Amino acid sequence: MLLRVPLLFALCLLALPIVAPARLPVPFDPAGPLQVVIYDQVFPRADDAWTAPAYEQERFIALTGVLESRLHMAGITGEITFERAGGSVPPATQRLEIILQRWEVSPMSLDTSIVVDCHIQARLLVEDGVFDMGVFRGQDTRPRMRRELVEEDYRPAAEEAVTNMIRFYYMAMHDEPLSGE
Fold first, then answer.
1. Distance CA 38, CA 120 (A)
2. 88-116: pLDDT as tens digits
3. How many helices, marked H, and strands, marked E, lie in the chain?
4. CB-based contact 61:103 (threshold 8 Å)
5. What pLDDT was estimated at residue 177?
6. Helix extents (H) in 74-177
7. β-sheet with 129-143: strand ranges across
8. Measured distance CA(133)–CA(86) in Å, rounded
9. Beta pairing partners, 91
10. Who's near 37: CB < 8 A, 6+ residues apart?
11. When comparing pLDDT for 165 and 13, which is higher?
């Protein structure tokens, strides 16, 4: 019986995938073309219209605007193209995949103020390497000015999440903090 447990444990370990550590700094060319693919996986909520499938195009436009400005801030000078996941995405040598997991009014919001949360997962594909850097969160709190919320109420949370992602990627690419940090 004692022999079976270690043997079973060893067999389970063999079934686990082995992941090689990522090379640092990440071999990314900031002057080369960058393809950004956005996966919108926001779960619709009845009490938040922004999460509805009908607003997917608006979320895509808002997020691409935030990404473009922040990527240029990090010194990326190459051509940046944005694609929506789901269709046929052309191959690219450098691809940033953004999985939009959450972009909604938080349950912590009150009648007098709103709290918006934005969670994105980011993965950078360069050459033959995949650099999964995790999930980045942004949160914005502001006074509630109107009953119906608009894009400007949601955008600051996305800006914070994307800025956190850019800071992390910049450190991985250059092994130093973004200037001004």
1. 10
2. 888 889 999 999 999 998 888 877 888 99
3. 3, 5
4. no
5. 61
6. 151-174
7. 80-84, 34-40, 94-105, 113-126, 129-143
8. 22
9. none
10. 82, 83, 84, 85, 89, 95, 96, 97, 98
11. 165
CATH 1.10.12 fits 29-174, yes or no: no
Confidence class for position 132, pLDDT limits 50, 70, 90: confident
**Residue 7 — very low, low, confident or very high, per pLDDT cuts 50/70/90?**
very low
| Whole-structure pTM value | 0.79
**Could you identify the residue written with the tokens 């009908």?**
54
Question: What is the rounded distance in angstroms from the CA atom of residue 124 to the CA atom of residue 147?
Answer: 38
- CB contact at 8 A, 168 and 133: yes
Domain spans of the chain, in order of start: 29-174
CA distances from 8 to 4, 16, 17, 18, 70 (A): 6, 13, 17, 18, 49
Amino acid letter, 113 = S
Residue type, 39: Y
1: burial class by Cβ within 10 Å (0-12, 13-18, 19+)? exposed
Query: CA-based angle 76:79:84, to the nearest 5?
Result: 105
